[in-house]
What does this fold into?
Amino acid sequence: MEYHIGVDIGGTKILIGLVDDNGNVTAAKRFEMNRTSQEAAVKTILESIDDFMSSIDILPNFIGVGIVGHIDYQKGIWISSMNIPIHSLVRLATMLEKKYGVRSRIDNDVHCATIAELFFGAGRRSRNFIYINIGTGISAGVVCDGNLIRGADNYAGEFGHMSVGMTGGACICGRTGCVESLASGKGIVEQASREPSLSGRGPGELTSRDILELARQGDPAATETVGIAVKALGSGIANLVNLLNPEEILLGGSVVKNEPDFVHSIWNYVELNALPISVTSLQYFGLSNLDVNTIGVLGASSLCKL
Amino acid sequence: MEYHIGVDIGGTKILIGLVDDNGNVTAAKRFEMNRTSQEAAVKTILESIDDFMSSIDILPNFIGVGIVGHIDYQKGIWISSMNIPIHSLVRLATMLEKKYGVRSRIDNDVHCATIAELFFGAGRRSRNFIYINIGTGISAGVVCDGNLIRGADNYAGEFGHMSVGMTGGACICGRTGCVESLASGKGIVEQASREPSLSGRGPGELTSRDILELARQGDPAATETVGIAVKALGSGIANLVNLLNPEEILLGGSVVKNEPDFVHSIWNYVELNALPISVTSLQYFGLSNLDVNTIGVLGASSLCKL
It folds into this structure.
């Protein structure tokens, strides 16, 4: 049995796991991320990996890293991130290879999660699927004919910045009506904070989960907010279905976790609005079966399989 | 030198060409399509190919066919078309192979045009590009890492039915705000026919070319209509750029042919609205360099190269 290390780096935390060839995460440890500067961020990542390596008694033969941001996958370079101040290229794969004497690859977080699906989830059944992460932000990994779509500069997958053009939803990207601005965790909270009856509880006080729960209880403002999120995601996913004719659509991320009603409402919208031929091709629409907590670690460790 | 036959079947005409290995269309002939019934359509196609074959003194070693509709590319079956009444499977590739004793393949029209780009246009420079046809309808062919994206059932590419959700534009697919309903030839004419000052000239009297010309002359209603088309196409293409991170975007079809100002306005919208990293990846945005009249024939004949 071979063992690989998977490192999942977010804006606030680092999760590191030891993963066997069958995709079992046999050990995992969580570290705080320090993103006060590029130097602090890189130092924290390296120290966390050191800490984890010294806690296991197995020699892994690969270290894969998933990071929120723009990654040069071929060269193993961390180019930039929205929420971590990277101002010069970080040759992370080379650093890790030199330090630990094992092969290393890095990629962005949603590509990693999609690679986890490719080897241990949807990819076992299908060669054409889309994994959509709905968390603080929204992004997607597209697999066509068994291959992850990377695009010209490994930046494919910014489904969150698909504008479906509805009123409202001024997005950080400068457009309006982006799926992310209306249906991500952050987007749902921001939309809700504009509703008068919910405005006593602002962005800091309500989570998207609270708003979904309030909608379930019949609160009109929460229902309106969730309806907009369903329509934005439904419309965006119908666009994906029409454009790419996938066989499966997997949803993951904190916003949809344990929210079957929300997922079902999105499916109803997609089924009614996407082209009938493409709807017929869809064999599965629903939550990813992989553990939402470790899908990033599993995917990062699976970069060795590409 | 090898020669291939390319057959481009639309709702009203059939264009058949003889194409050499270098992509030169050395002979071509146009026939009227008969779409009164499935039987009449198939008979007309076969008779047209017969006619063309007897007019050339070269023995081709492949017949490729491009058809508007849903095609089973693997099995060579014409499944359905929007505007031709196909009610049972047409095993066209097998028919042609038996009749002429040469290899045959069939695919849909936009896939064929994209394959022409792949071998004789953008594909010579880039492994990640999108070809968008803007004619009576709108559709796209997506090439990622050198491969045409077909999807689960060869139905990928329905970019015309990407809703960008602006008001207006009730689409034949049942949604509103589809790119096709606002920016195709048919869509532009329909939008214009709602404008009071242009309403004296209805869908039968004005073409999209007339409306683009009226807008250039400063007609306010035409300017408004063209502005909506630019915004719809610009927003849809920005969505594609964000999702797929292409290196090139090629526009073809009757609506954009000889309309550099229209194309330039769309580019301005895309450049301003797509994510900066993805805009930086775009090395080319503009008209296809391939002959709009024969790109379908060239692509169909190139199906032998896949």
The mean pLDDT of chain A is 95. The longest strand of chain A covers residues 13-20. Chain A touches chain B through 49 residues (CB under 8 Å). Residues 112 and 299 of chain A are 4 Å apart (CA to CA).
